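re: that complex we talked abt at group meeting.

here r the seqs, copy pasted straight from the sheet so there may be weird spacing, ignore it
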Amino acid sequence: MTTFIIRRILQTIVVIFVVTLMVFLIMRSMPGDPVIMYLGPDASVEQIEHYTKEFGLDKPLPVQYFTWLGNIAKGEFGQSIAYRQDIGPFILSRLKVTLMIAIPAFILAVVFGVLLGVIAAIRRGKLIDSIITVMANIGMATPVFWLSILCVYILSLKLNLLPVQGFTWPTEDFTLSIKKMIMPVTILSLGPLATFARQTRSAMLEVIRQDFIRTGRSKGLGEKVIIYKHALRNAMIPIVTLMGMSLGNMIGGSVLIEQVFVIPGMGDMLITSILNKDYQLVQSAVFVIAAGVSLCNLIVDIAYGYIDPRIRIS
Amino acid sequence: MQNTVEKVEVNDSGGMQVVETNIPTKTSSFKRFWRIMLARKIVIFGLAILLLAFIVAIFAPLIAPHDPIEQNLLNSLQQPSKEHLLGTDALGRDVLSRIIYGTRVSLAVGFVSVAIAGSIGMLLGLISGYIGGWVEGIIMRFMDVMMSIPLIILAMFIGAVLGKGLDNIMLAIGIGMIPSYARLTRGQVKSIKQLDYVTAGKISGAGSFKNAFVHILPNCIAPNIVLMTMNLGVAILIEAGLSFLGLGINPPMASWGAMVSDGYNHLRTLPYLSIAPGVVIMIVVLAFNIVGDALRDTLDPRLRGSL
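got the structure back, here u go
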């Protein structure tokens, strides 16, 4: 087990290291000069030279890369050119907003996705199974940004039930905050919810066929015990793997949803910084996302290594 | 199999089962393929939608009632009428014609990006699975890195370097989807490599190149085709998303995602400007997913659950 954990941790460190290298190289191959974007088209040659030096963009690429890496290790991300702010705290504040939407959505997706998947599997072939399967297919095919707009139209503009857009912290105004969060959270959860339902259904159907389930039935265990204690537990491996991956996808989905609901999160920041060629900020943001996703996968893997010995070997 | 005919039954789990009966006839694998594919009615619906989408894309100039990019500011934001069945947008362009031309963009993005991802991904998977060792280590770690960034953000990122526009978006989405093919193919190659017929090939003097490309690769193609079909819908959704964000197709070219975004400004007065193109995206993606699922069940039912 210890070797398994150490191996996975080393792998994650390598992945995160390569992420920094890749992000750095991609950013530097972008066309356009960030200093000119920063100063505007009327900047004088002297000004451009001065700021190029100040941002450290005159140094050779390897030097720039290792300076950046060293600074990240110290927790210093540098200055954002587009927002003129300290990047570290700025990303943190944006990340908090995105997580306020993504974490509840994640919980919704896992709980209801698994539940619906189990129901569909137990009642396979029945009407409820068909309904869940069809809904899951539709859920996976729906563009989140379009669904957001549709919900705004129906729930906000026509029925006047929920605010059109914006984000408020629960600590400021709890009721308003919940009202504003209902639509983005629910919509963000739907795609992953559909994926979880499908995955759970097929994993459960796979497990239910196996001998130990028949053994459980023949020794007289209750149906609930069989389904939730024995079958679901064994069907969880692909589902848990999916959990690790879907957290990243949720951040991707929230980029689109934040745009519709005007939520000041990571997505909005990424788009602005890409459009402004803000090297430092994009680099740091992608680094934070990739590191976060890799860490989640690491935690999921280690947790499952503990629960299920079969994982450790493969 | 020439002495049995197979009957396809949809079993109660919604999956399909090939039931062999003892009526002596000869069936071609082609017929067999279609019989399993079409055993579920919904697949016919999916194929019909796709066929319609292809026809619309190919014959767009003949079908579209108006020029999709011709502006007519005097005629902007019209309600639906006989002349303009879905009305006109803020620049006076016919919405229906733009949706029709948008089919071309979506299908092109879907097929080209999936072809890019599939060919490069399969090649990388073949190399890493066949050679193994440090080559495999490097390639697969790199794939891990790409997979640790959400696809839409990765595509945004690559697209930012390449610039906007149809070609670059196809390339960006294609590159972003490479890892899943590399992983799938690598797994396949590793298990096929150990089969007897590959050893037999080696003994009869096939070089590694021949072994890899002639003996192993063809047997990895079926699951890759399934994954490609399933990814067509994903690619279309990502393109729509990027265009919605203004990071995708360049205007004035018609893209469904960009149309949803343009219409958003007029949601209060003309909601269908935004809603109509979204419905089309949903139906086309749904059709690709249905056909992808059916293809998986037909070509390789063992993939159920893993793809």
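couple things i noticed - The two ends of chain B are 28 Å apart (CA to CA). Chain B touches chain A through 51 residues (CB under 8 Å).
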